[in-house]
Each structure stands twice: as structure tokens, then as C-alpha cells.
């Protein structure tokens, strides 16, 4: 067995437990394949007279929203490096999780692939999934990235770089709204709703105006990660203190899923359900399918990430839409949308036979003169490369999204930065089901009429599972305790910066 096969146990267990806990991401990203099918791109036959050894570089991920730009990048790369043929496979997030687990277990992992959502890079490094990038990249390559890209506990493990973020971390829980449907419902498209009551009323009016042709809101309800992201980030805006860096409230060290802030979000979504404001296909479609139906004018609102902008502007050029912040409780905003530090994405397989060619691909992907520039120009995302966003961001909706994300979102503490050994706890943590996303999805579907009781039960179960994870990590030798997950100096209305880790008790 190779080292990846030997170390599959811990990572495999964690991956299977996280099947329904996909983030965004973007951190991270949360956007599945457009059509749910894998896409493989290979190069043309290389020049037989080429002196360099012919290499096939295998790459796998789920980044679908810029498929055409990625394919053009691959064509340009193979023209520039005729000895390298790129074999690119694109999957949905859920397909990727299952596929990469099988590939790693069988010793057939691609050369480059992302950290699966819901998993920690440090745990995968320990299990032998990835190798360091340091031998293949120089300081000039590292210097081109924005501050915070390479941090111990996120993209760096034991002082070595193992991964690079896909894009600048932005929340994926803002709302897009259809201005045309707003006008048809008698709403002002220049004054979108700001509170729960206003939002519910607007969705109801749009549904009534649609008379079965369009509805107030649509979601990709088949993807639990979308419910999970919305539940955590909207409730944090209401003061819950939840975020993607931990299953517990990092201000208190406790699970607070039955708090007033969380229950307020659930009550809002239950109200939207009772008003029949959800598109009837909501619970049976994926996020990309919901995105497509919104682009066709079948809903007034959708909760999604910035990656949708480039897709709509390309596929639905006549769509008149705006970007708005999530609504807040009628009593006002009490927190912020959590923004996590730049999260790991692409990494180099520990078993890659072509690490130098893989590193060359990364250098062109991030530092070349095409991909990052075209991605930002398309309106898909913001780059982690210095200067790209300022020079190439021209799409108005993307500018709006970026401004709102930074107005309503702030950096939250990351226990892995405060103490890298905290990763041992996350590796031991066994997620509780039904989780918060499943509970919100179940509330929308009508499976849970009373959401308060299961939220209270879930909080208790998470606290118990978290305590067990800390105990297990300590038993295995990790220098960590519960205090590493409490940041009493955290102000959710401000960014939690590097100096704040030093002053945390």
C-alpha cells in the first residue's frame, strides 16, 4: 500500500460524516455543476517531435461557474506547454466527495484536487492525502497573493504550504432579487426589504402577483449545504455567533442552536412556507438548478454566492436583478455575516508523479496573464492575487456583492490559527444529524412543524459530541482544551485580526 492508502482511515471517516455538511464556502464555494454531469477536458495530441517527456496532468474539482474560462485556460496552457496534456474532470460537490474518497483509497487520486468541503486540511495531511508545495514554488510566487492567504492552521500545516485558496473568501448568503418581478408586485426595486417582516411580505406579494408563473423565493433545497449556510450566516447576523469555523459559538464555547437568533431565522422560513412563497420545486432541485430557474424569472429571491453573477450575465443577459443583504430581525442587526480566513482549496496529491508540472499549472493558474483576469472580468469571483480585483472588476452586481459582503460581514476567529493543534479536535468531532441545515430544510418542507424542540435537542447533542472530540484529541496527545475555542475578546461587529489572537484569554 502507498502512504495515502495507509492513512485513509481518519480522513475517510470524517468525509463520510460530512456528506451533508458542505460549506462554501468560498470559502470558500458551494456551487455545484451546472448540469450535474462530470466534464472532462483533454488536450490535443502533443507534438511528436517535442523533446520534453510527455506528461498527463490529472485535475479534478467542482468549480462549474466558469467552465468556459477554465477550458480556454487549459487550451492556452497546453499550447504553451505542449508536453503536458491536461485531463480535467469537473463534478458536483456531492459527486466530488464520493469520487475523491474512492480515488484516494485506491491510490488513483488526481495530481491536483481540492480539499473536500467539511474537512480540515491538517487531518488530510496527517492521513497522507497531500504533499507540501514549498519545494516547487518560490517566494515571488507567494508574494503575489493578498495578505492572509497563507496562514498556519488554514493553508499551512506545520510551517509548510499545502494548499492555495480558490478565491477571496466572501459569504455566500446574500440575496439576489428580480427587479422586474418587484415592479409587477408593486414593490420598489430600488428599496429591497431590510427586515424579516418586510422580506416575508415582499415574497408573499411576488407570489400572489405571479399566479403560479413565479414565486417569492427559490432555493436548491436538495443541497443541504445551502440550508446550512443560510441558517448559520443569517442567524449570526441576528447575533447567534455561529460560523463555519466551528460547530459551537466561539464567543461562549457552547452550542447555541436554540437561541433566539436561530429560532428567528427558522420562524421566518416557516412563515415563507406557510405563505406558499417557496417555488414548488425548491426541495427537489440542486443549487445550480435553482439558479437557472431564477435566471428564467421564476422567483423573486434566491440566496446564493457571487459566482452566480457571471453565469446569469452570460446565460440570461436580459435578467434585471439586484443584490441585497440578508434581512435582519425587526428589532435590528445584532451581529455580522461570518467571513472566514482564506480557506484551503487546491492541493498537490502526495502520490503525484508529476509535482513539477502540477506546480507549473498552479503558477499559470494564479500568476499567468489569463485565468485570474478573465475570472474577475466575468463576474464570477474575487481573486486572491494582488491587484487583479482593482484592475479587472467591471461587473456592477459583483461590485455590489463585494461592498455588501464587507459591510455586513466580518472576519471571525479561527481556532486553528489560535492553536494549530485545535485541528485534532475537528478531526475527532462526529457531526450530529439531523444537523442545522437538515432541520431548516425539514422546516421548509413541512417535516418539522415544531422546530424549537429539535433545535434544543440538537444543541445538547452537539455540546456532548464536542466535549467528546476534545477529550479524544487530548487522549491522542494534542495540546488543546476547551479554552482554545472561546474568544472572549471577539466583537462580531468588527474583523477579528491577527493581533486579536494574541490578546484572547
From TrEMBL:
Q: State the superkingdom.
A: Bacteria
- Does the keyword field hold Metal-binding? no
Q: Which PANTHER family does the entry mention?
A: ARABINOSE-BINDING PROTEIN-RELATED, SN-GLYCEROL-3-PHOSPHATE-BINDING PERIPLASMIC PROTEIN UGPB
Q: Which CDD domains match?
A: PBP2_TMBP_like (cd13585)
Q: Which GO terms describe its cellular component?
A: cell envelope
Q: Where in the cell is it found?
A: Cell envelope
Q: Which family does it belong to?
A: Belongs to the bacterial solute-binding protein 1 family.
- What InterPro entries does the database record attribute to this sequence? Bact_solute-bd_prot1, SBP
Keyword set, alphabetical order: Signal, Transport
Protein name according to UniProt = Extracellular solute-binding protein
Per the UniProt entry, the signal peptide is: 1-22
Q: Which residues form a coiled coil?
A: none
Amino acid at each position: 500500500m502507498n502512504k495515502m492508502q495507509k492513512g485513509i482511515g481518519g480522513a475517510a471517516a470524517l468525509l463520510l460524516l460530512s456528506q451533508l455538511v458542505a460549506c462554501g464556502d468560498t470559502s470558500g464555494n458551494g456551487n455545484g455543476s451546472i448540469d450535474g454531469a462530470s466534464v472532462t477536458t483533454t488536450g490535443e495530441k502533443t507534438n511528436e517531435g517535442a523533446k520534453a517527456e510527455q506528461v498527463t496532468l490529472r485535475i479534478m474539482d467542482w468549480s462549474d461557474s466558469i467552465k468556459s474560462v477554465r477550458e480556454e485556460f487549459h487550451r492556452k496552457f497546453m499550447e504553451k506547454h505542449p508536453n503536458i496534456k491536461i485531463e480535467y474532470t469537473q463534478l458536483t460537490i456531492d459527486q466530488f466527495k464520493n469520487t475523491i474518497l474512492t480515488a484516494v483509497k485506491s491510490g488513483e487520486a488526481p495530481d491536483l484536487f481540492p480539499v473536500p468541503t467539511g474537512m480540515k486540511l491538517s487531518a488530510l495531511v496527517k492521513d497522507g492525502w497531500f504533499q507540501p508545495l514549498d519545494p516547487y514554488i518560490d517566494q515571488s510566487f507567494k508574494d503575489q497573493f493578498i495578505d492572509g492567504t497563507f496562514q498556519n492552521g488554514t493553508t499551512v500545516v506545520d510551517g509548510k504550504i499545502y494548499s492555495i485558496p480558490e478565491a477571496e473568501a466572501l459569504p455566500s448568503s446574500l440575496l439576489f432579487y428580480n427587479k422586474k418581478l418587484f415592479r409587477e408586485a408593486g414593490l420598489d426595486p430600488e428599496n429591497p426589504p431590510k427586515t424579516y417582516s418586510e422580506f416575508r411580505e415582499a415574497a408573499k406579494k411576488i407570489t400572489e402577483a405571479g399566479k403560479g408563473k413565479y414565486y417569492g423565493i427559490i432555493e436548491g433545497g436538495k443541497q443541504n449545504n445551502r440550508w446550512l449556510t443560510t441558517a448559520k450566516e443569517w442567524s449570526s447576523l441576528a447575533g447567534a455567533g455561529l460560523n463555519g469555523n466551528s460547530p459551537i459559538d466561539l464567543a461562549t464555547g457552547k452550542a447555541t442552536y436554540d437561541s433566539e437568533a436561530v429560532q428567528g431565522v427558522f420562524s421566518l422560513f416557516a412563515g415563507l412556507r406557510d405563505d406558499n412563497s417557496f417555488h414548488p420545486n425548491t426541495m427537489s432541485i440542486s443549487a445550480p438548478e435553482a439558479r437557472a430557474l431564477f435566471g428564467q424569472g421564476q422567483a423573486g429571491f434566491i440566496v446564493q454566492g457571487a459566482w452566480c453573477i457571471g453565469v446569469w450575465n452570460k446565460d440570461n443577459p436580459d435578467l434585471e436583478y439586484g443584490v441585497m443583504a440578508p434581512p435582519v430581525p425587526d428589532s435590528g442587526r445584532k451581529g455580522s455575516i461570518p467571513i472566514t480566513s482564506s480557506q484551503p482549496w487546491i492541493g498537490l496529491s502526495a502520490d503525484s508523479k508529476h509535482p513539477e508540472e502540477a506546480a507549473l499549472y498552479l503558477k499559470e493558474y494564479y500568476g499567468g496573464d489569463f485565468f485570474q483576469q478573465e475570472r474577475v472580468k466575468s463576474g464570477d469571483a474575487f481573486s486572491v492575487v494582488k491587484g487583479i480585483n482593482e484592475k479587472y472588476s467591471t461587473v456592477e452586481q459583483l461590485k455590489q456583492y463585494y461592498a455588501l459582503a464587507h459591510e455586513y460581514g466580518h472576519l471571525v476567529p479561527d481556532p486553528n490559527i489560535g492553536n494549530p493543534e485545535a485541528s485534532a479536535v475537528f478531526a475527532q468531532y462526529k457531526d450530529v444529524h439531523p444537523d442545522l441545515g437538515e432541520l431548516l430544510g425539514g422546516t421548509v418542507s413541512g417535516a418539522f412543524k415544531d422546530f424549537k424542540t429539535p433545535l434544543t435537542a440538537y444543541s445538547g447533542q452537539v455540546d456532548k459530541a464536542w466535549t467528546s472530540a476534545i477529550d479524544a484529541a487530548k487522549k491522542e496527545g494534542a495540546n488543546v482544551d476547551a479554552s482554545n475555542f472561546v474568544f472572549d475578546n471577539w466583537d462580531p461587529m468588527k474583523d477579528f485580526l491577527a493581533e486579536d489572537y494574541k490578546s484572547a484569554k
